[in-house]
Amino acid sequence: MKFSVDPWDPSYGSALDDVLDPTEVTVETDFEVASSKWEPIAVSDSDRNRASVVLFVDGVRRIDAQVWIEDDESNVAPGVCATYAAGVVRAGDKAEIVATSVRRGIFSASRSTRPITTKFPDVVYLPFAATESTPEALWIAIQNQMGEREVEMAEVARRDAPDDALVLLDGPVTNRTHVPRAVGIIKTHAAAYLPPDLHRLVGGLPEGARTPVFTIGGRGSRHSWYLRLPGGRDAPWAGVIRCECSADMDPADAVQLAEVVGATVPRYASEPHKDPRAPQNLYPVGGLERELRRRLGDPHLLYRALLVSAAHTA
């Protein structure tokens, strides 16, 4: 395989910041209580309701270089070299990182994509296929691989945790519903799942209160609810997160899990003077992100290593 490195600075990122949830779904709002009786639910934060052990799972990714891949017939296709990592923080009597994994890949729709070795023996970019050559498709391919690493990390950490441990995933619970007591935490809101009258209720949630549990149908169906964390700024949806769990859960178990999340998660909410994404970016997640980014390696050294590797293929 012959490839070249695009001079565009990869620190400017990609055209797509995240993978958005679909908006064309069916929503059942009568799951916990009838829609006509919806009102904020105050969650008890007593120790009895809190999870004794919480596993925070998250991942980070970085594009190290944008490349062009040339096949034997001189056809070229775009691609990206990326480093991605996932890990778990276990919080109980203390908080500690208990599992991490760092991987590198070259992502492209070209069938000529091959592994890229560098002058660093432990730095190899393995090939992964993207569905298309668009920036969005390449970014989604990276996201999918990072998501697989997050699943692995959650499974590893879950094996050594007590049965009642709470597993908090950064992002949708999709593809991770098999992990016991796994809850996805969505910090930003790109879709309005509720009808207007119930949607307005979310903006009026008091701190520490949640909505009733509802069900999002369609592909990847799941139970969901909104929770307002303490410390949000003076804006209607400030400090609001959306939580989701497997739709296969029994209704009573899903509601009980929502109660545990409401009693447990607010204590980890971040503060604006320490995190610009406060309060939604939970403290253990922020610390895990910093450590994972450190483990990604020096981007300048990796970029130069890729330039040298590309020169050897010319």
Describe the SSE topology:
Layout: E1 2-5, E2 27-28, E3 41-42, E4 54-70, E5 76-91, E6 95-108, E7 116-117, E8 124-129, H1 135-159, E9 166-170, E10 182-186, H2 196-203, E11 209-210, E12 214-216, E13 222-228, E14 240-246, H3 251-264, H4 283-295, H5 299-313
Parallel strand pairs: 4-9, 6-8, 9-10
Antiparallel strand pairs: 1-4, 2-12, 3-11, 4-5, 5-6, 7-8, 10-14, 12-13, 13-14
Structural class: alpha+beta
Helix share of residues? 10-25%
Which parts are unreliable, with pLDDT below 50 for 5 consecutive residues or more? Answer: 12-22
| Mean pLDDT value | 90
How far is the first residue's CA from the last residue's CA?
A: 10 Å
Q: Per DSSP, what share of the residues sits in E-state strands of 2 or more residues? A: 25-35%
Number of helices: 5
Q: What's the overall geometry?
A: elongated
Order of helices and strands: EEEEEEEEHEEHEEEEHHH
Largest sheet: 12 strands, mixed
Number of domains: 1
Overall strand count: 14
Indicate the radius of gyration in whole angstroms. Answer: 21 Å
In terms of quaternary structure, the protein is single chain
